[in-house]
Design brief:
- The chain is α/β, with parallel strands linked by helices.
- The chain is built from 20 helices and nine strands.
- 50% of the residues lie in helices and 8% in strands.
- The chain has a four-stranded parallel beta sheet with strand order 4-5-8-9, with helices on one face. It has a three-stranded parallel beta sheet with strand order 1-2-3. A two-stranded antiparallel ribbon has the order 6-7.
- α9 links the parallel β2 and β3.
- The chain starts with 9 loop residues before the first helix and ends with a helix.
- Bound molecules: zinc ion (ZN).
- Zinc ion binds next to loops.
């Protein structure tokens, strides 16, 4: 993992070192906790930083036979948890965790040793010693990785106080909220009616109908805009194309408020309507909308009951969603309400489906208006990112790609941008040296800088 890690050719090395490496990071979708940035969180230990919420690592540990106590338990110490992770690391050969772990040790802490039971104690101590120093804080890590801007993931009822606090503190890195109204969409969830009540309270109005809820959401959408928001995000299993009338939606909504069960077709009608209304709101505010689709979540009900969501029990779903996606985008386009859109699939079988879908709705108003989102979650690794870029290259314009994001809760995930940039340079370098692309250092260099940074900067219009 030296300076030419993943860079197999001279051209790739040149592109990376002269162009990619110097570009700042715009991390336009992540799950950082805004309070930690506002308060410039100091980490108790490398365990808090690494294993506190990282379900990728928990999954690997469980697979390696580690007891749950050492993943999420409260009766085990930071050292005990770290030790179990160190025991697991040598078994992660060829899993992306092996690369992430060592890239993070190297770039965040300057540690070039391999993590294993033999080195666990010294690495644990060295990291913890560094974490006591003033530059090893939440903000310190963001500075270290040359981050320019991050977009968090926020619920419409959030008061965004930590965004405001961060802005007012004069922190030079921008933390912008992003609108994620999943709880208002997930009408089948047992807490839906409670959520609507909360939304009513925050918006300062009564919600007795779907129309009221849209008005409340519009108020919150405006509030998010006032706080710099330019971007929405939806976590959906699939796209929906069930037809509906206003009367049907009101009837479905009324049932949900009374906590009566809904049929699956009713849920799908509602979601189709909800996502359409949200998309129109985004268009009117000149935001970008993102759709993360294709996950099948909370598969292990015993563990869901014990630990709740996002604890490492989700996987790739298989939904036939191309037709519904097409109808959904077409409906918005016909109304003249299709804003900039990023489509992410968790199932890489749909890479080509999406890469070709984009072209249906590019309207020449700006470059890359409809985007194929970077390899996400299970695809956020060497093979997954490469496949995404190859599909986009063959069926769209890689040059117009807005590039990488961490989608992470961790302040140590920024090396994923480096990893992505190295892969990108390597793909281009291999093509040049195989004679498939001309050796045009200036043009290729510009392409790399665009995908690493400039495209996102232009596309999102954050500032
Ligand atoms: Zn996400």
């Amino acid at each position: 993992m030296d300076e030419n890690f993943l860079l197999q050719t001279k051209t790739a090395q040149e592109l990376y070192h002269e162009h990619a490496a110097k570009m700042p990071i715009i991390d336009y979708h992540c799950h950082l906790i805004p309070q930690m940035v506002a308060e410039d969180h100091k980490f108790r230990s490398i365990t808090e930083l690494w294993l506190g919420g990282d379900h990728y690592k928990w999954r690997a540990m469980r697979t390696n036979g580690v007891d749950e106590r050492f993943c999420t338990g409260e009766d085990t110490s930071d050292w005990e948890k770290f030790e179990k992770w160190a025991e697991t690391v040598p078994y992660t050969f060829r899993n992306p965790l092996y690369h992430w772990t060592h890239l993070e040790l190297k770039t965040a802490f300057g540690i070039n040793k391999l993590l294993s039971p033999a080195t666990a104690r010294e690495i644990f101590d060295e990291c913890n010693e560094k974490l006591k120093q003033p530059e090893y804080t939440a903000r310190g890590f963001m500075r270290k990785y040359n981050v320019e801007c991050v977009c968090t993931t926020d619920d419409p009822v959030d008061d965004l106080r930590y965004h405001k606090q961060t802005r007012e503190s004069g922190f030079e890195i921008k933390m912008i909220p992003a609108w994620r109204p999943d709880k208002a969409m997930n009408i089948e969830k047992p807490d839906f009616a409670d959520y609507v009540a909360k939304l009513a309270e925050v918006a300062g109005m009564e919600i007795n109908s779907f129309k009221d809820m849209v008005d409340a959401l519009q108020k919150r959408h405006d509030f998010f805009t006032e706080n710099g928001c330019k971007l929405s995000d939806h976590g959906i299993e699939e796209f929906y194309d069930e037809e509906y009338t206003d009367a049907q939606i009101e009837a479905i909504f009324a049932k949900a408020l009374k906590r009566q069960p809904l049929t699956v077709p009713e849920q799908r009608q509602y979601k189709n309507c909800f996502l359409t209304v949200m998309a129109e709101m985004d268009y009117d505010a000149n935001w970008t909308q993102q759709y993360h689709y294709g996950a099948i979540r909370d598969n292990n009900s015993i563990m869901y009951d014990r630990l709740g969501p996002d604890t490492g029990f989700d996987s790739i779903g298989e939904f036939n969603t191309a037709r519904a996606m097409s109808r959904f985008l077409d409906k918005l386009n016909k109304k003249g309400k299709l804003t900039r859109t990023i489509l992410y699939t968790l199932n890489p079988c749909a890479n080509e489906v999406i890469a070709t879908m984009l072209g249906n709705f590019q309207d020449g108003s700006e470059p890359g208006k409809i985007q194929f989102g970077s390899g996400w979650w299970f695809n956020d690794q060497l093979d997954g990112m490469t496949r995404q870029m190859n599909a986009l290259s063959a069926l769209g314009l890689l040059s117009r790609f807005v590039g990488m994001l961490t989608d992470s809760r961790s302040f140590l995930s920024y090396p994923r941008h480096e990893y992505f940039r190295r892969l990108l340079c390597n793909l281009l370098g291999n093509d040049v040296e195989a004679g498939m692309l001309p050796y045009l250092p200036e043009e290729l260099g510009r392409m790399v800088e665009d995908i690493s940074y400039n495209n996102a900067r232009r596309y999102f219009k954050f500032y």
